[in-house]
Amino acid sequence: MKNILTCLSLAVLALSLYSCEKFLDLEPQSQSIAVENTSADSILYKTASDAEAALAGAYADFKNEYYQLDYYVNGDAQSDDAYAGGDNPANFQIDDYKLDATNTNVSRDWSYLYATIGKTNAVINNVGKVTDPALTAARKEEIIGEASFIRAFMYFQAVQLWGDVPLQLTEVTSISAANLEEIYPQLFPERAPAEDVYKQIILDLETALAKVPATAPHKGYATKGAANAMLAKVYATQEPHDWDKVKQYCDAVIAGGFSLLPDYEQLWDNANENSAESIFEINYNGGITDGNWGTKIFRGLDWKKFNLPSNDLEKAFDAENDVIRKNASIIYLDVTGKWSDPHWPQTKYPFINKWRNFNEGSSQNYIFIRLADILLLKAEALNELGDQTGAADLVDQIRERVNLPKTTASTQAELRLAIEKERRLELAFEGHRWYDLKRTGRAIPVISAAVDQNGANLGYNLTENRLVWPIPQAELDKNLKLRQNPGY
Predict the structure, then answer these.
(1) Residues spanned by the domain of 328
(2) Which of 60-64, 187-191, 209-213, 361-365 shows the lowest per-residue confidence on average (mean pLDDT)?
(3) pLDDT, mean of residues 128-142
(4) Which helix (DSSP H) or strand (DSSP E) does residue 56 occupy?
(5) Each residue of 368-420: pLDDT tens digit?
(6) In a domain, 347, yes or no
(7) How far apart are CA 364 and CA 275, in angstroms?
(8) Which of 87-101, 174-188, 212-226, 260-274 has the lowest mean pLDDT?
(9) What letter would DSSP give residue 133?
(10) What is the chain's mean pLDDT, rounded?
């Protein structure tokens, strides 16, 4: 407690010393959650440009290390679709389900997500106070809706990774002895139950749905389609699942003008960015200032890359005779003399093929949500609601595009597995697999059955406790109100 009071006292002192500054960016020693501390005369954004810049800053975080790299490590290397690859011990821990609270990926992901949450809080709570007539009332509402979508997206990541997490919805605007009691819970938040976090995510997405436009200059902005898609995914993930809501929001997406591209390859050839199938897609212009360096992490011959496609996934493609999606997803190259790996021969070494512009300053976009994902999610909802015929029809729609025969699954149990398989093959390396296995309760049996190149069990020891990550040790040290997840 003495340390806490000392830190706060120093913060108050710093605030008084720099009160003449327009903004004071101060990170409390209690946490890594980013808060913006301002003097009393600079709380509000002064101009329309200030407000737009603040929103742009929140959007820009979709291009940080979390979304360029860790999003895919967490969703794919943590599943049976990819090995860690590379040489990063932190990634090896994730791949082998041997995380500890000092893992550097765990701590940085926490920091990235909460930093963006802090930015959205500032926008949501302050844009309505802007007096500049250039910022119309209608645009203010849109900005609040877009920031709400971003905040929901970040919290959806956090709650899936850690379960109960701090629910911070306001920003600290000043620190003083007079308001210490009021701001203390903001600086040192407890973990909110996952149920409450999901309620807030849904509230934010409902706010977004009501306020954001139906279309935007490109798919990198929050739109009604993106909000509907996220609502469908959230209702399919939270416990208990609400399949009626999943169907409702999937139907809203489907009615929103999206359509499957006729050729699966078109999704990845870089000639159809922001396509009719894409719902939410991070746009890169390329070059030094706006390049997607993440693609270089997954593909190239200059050093051993991350997210090495797994033998288990290759076997799944081959067992289905899924040539089109396999070739679009995996490319085999000769790395003789460069490096070796116990899972693959040097002469036929696999790389992810969906991200094909892997040059320095790449302009490769990342597609986070697309219509095929939503169609298969609707199939899941229909199956759980008892409409096996409707579910099978949607699965067949996805399979038809890649020249595969109709599914033979007909019972609810068979269709659950058929949809799971279809999602795996359709969405490989797009960051979904781990979360699909978790939300369906299939992670432990599926991961336990994963095999190597010889068909031998890989021996992963995934337990119930390891379905969520540890709270970063650094956060526990700073904030005594936080409690560690069981098993860590």
Answers:
(1) 284-364
(2) 187-191
(3) 97
(4) helix 48-60
(5) 999 999 999 999 999 999 999 999 999 999 999 999 999 999 999 999 999 99
(6) yes
(7) 14
(8) 174-188
(9) T
(10) 91
Q: Which residues of 320-377 form beta strands (DSSP E)?
A: 330-333, 349-352, 366-370
Element (H, E) at 279: strand 278-282
Task: Determine the 3-state secondary structure of 237 from DSSP.
Answer: helix
* Closest CA relative to residue 434, chosen from 186, 107, 192, 80: 80
One-letter identity of residue 52: E
Q: pLDDT category, 431, cuts 50, 70, 90?
A: very high
Report the domain count for the chain: 1
Q: At what angle do helices 194-211 and 224-237 cross, to 10 degrees?
A: 160
User: How far apart are alpha carbons 172 and 443 in whole angstroms?
Assistant: 39
* Within a domain: 291: yes
**pTM to 2 decimal places:** 0.91
What is the phi/psi pair of residue 36, to 5°?
-105, 120
Report whether 35 contacts 170 (CB < 8 A).
Answer: no
Residue 324 lies in a domain: yes
Is 90 within a domain? no
Handedness of CA 252, 257, 258, 261 (dihedral sign): positive
Which residue is listed with tokens 């967490």? 74
